[in-house]
Amino acid sequence: MHTPLRTERLQIAAVSNSKHIIDVALKFTGATGRQIVQESVNLLRSILGSTKVHPDRLTYALAGFIFHCKSPKPFGGPKMSPGFLQYNGTTAADTLEFIVTTAYGATWNTNNPKALKFLVKSFNRMMEMHFRGMKDEVDELMLKGMKKAGHIEWFKSSLIPLHLRHVDEDGVFSQSQGVSFKFPSHHSSPKLNGLKGDL
User: Fold this and answer.
1) Global pTM?
2) Helices (H), ranges, 50-170
3) Cα dihedral value 130, 51, 116, 62, nearest 10
4) Which one-letter DSSP state was computed for residue 3?
């Protein structure tokens, strides 16, 4: 039986000392690009589903962070044609999958982890805001994400649906749980083993 070639690739990974924080890690894997993307989508869905709020609330808040013309490519770009306009999904699940797939695609195609790091940093910041009870700020991000995803009208005032409203969490989110993106010296310029066409 053929054994898939295991190579070292950057992947989104859970942080061992926190169930709500993610990082970018180098892993030995024999998974295909599609499998890596799906594993990462499933990880983020699991984390979002572990909170007391509806996971769509935080998914759209993440989109509110990322769908901005000042975001790094491939999400950002000129005001009239930022990268996130390529998105045409219709659900929060579509939105999360687009964000993860796009971040990996840019990472593999350019051999530069900037997009993946940006996704991880945005996700961690969004989770921190939620656990700190920053309701109004997350509300604003969520509505921006929904509008930029095309899931609600842009120029009309919007009421937050009941199922997407804030719910307080138990415990406090520790700032010390934040992660950095420094690679070991021997991985200062890691080969990302580009998977063009593997998505």
Assistant:
1) 0.84
2) 55-66, 92-110, 114-131, 135-148
3) -50
4) P
Place of tokens 């007391």: 52
State the residue for tokens 């990082």. 23
- Whole-angstrom distance, CA of residue 91 vs CA of residue 78: 25
* Six token digits for residue 5: 């070639």
pLDDT tens string 129-168: 999 999 999 999 999 999 999 998 877 777 899 999 999 9
- Cα of 44 vs its chain's centroid, Å: 7
The CA distance from 144 to 44, in Å, is 20
124 near 48, Cβ under 8 Å? no
**In which residue are the tokens 């975001």 written?**
71
Does residue 51 contact residue 130 with C-beta atoms inside 8 Å? Answer: yes
